[in-house]
Amino acid sequence: MLISTRGRYALRVMIDLAEQGGAGYTPLKEIAARQGISEKYLENIVKRLAANGLLRGQRGKGGGYRLARPPEEISVGSILRLTEESLAPVACLAPGQQPCPRAAGCRTLPLWQALDELIAGYLDGVSVADLAAAEGAKTP
């Protein structure tokens, strides 16, 4: 499993918005400047986050983005599942894969399944609020 820039940047956006304290909408331009990320690249990321209910967007004067829920209710796992094709450690465990014909006799499958559960459990157990509260969270 390798987390792409899309996943890492999505986390940075969510942490940035959590640090704003929910006080209104934050323009994407401001988020991009604070995070040192291209505004154009962030547009696609925030659209996906908004379309999946993690962000709320507002157009026009005073518009921008804000978290759709309290940061304590948004897990890192939920963000990464939206931005990454898969968090599975091996292809046979990725969502939508056909069952492996060797699964019944695979001696390593239990290892990969346990690792997959550990990864999911860990990422689902860390919230955006946890990251925003952590020292050095502005530059993960």
Automatic annotation (TrEMBL):
One annotated Gene Ontology cellular component of this protein: cytosol
Native species: Bittarella massiliensis
InterPro entries: Tscrpt_reg_Rrf2, WH-like_DNA-bd_sf, WH_DNA-bd_sf
Protein name (record): Rrf2 family transcriptional regulator
SUPFAM superfamilies: Winged helix' DNA-binding domain (SSF46785)
Domain of life: Bacteria
One Pfam family, short name: Rrf2
Gene Ontology MF: a single term: DNA binding
Key words, A-Z: DNA-binding
PROSITE patterns, sorted: HTH_RRF2_2
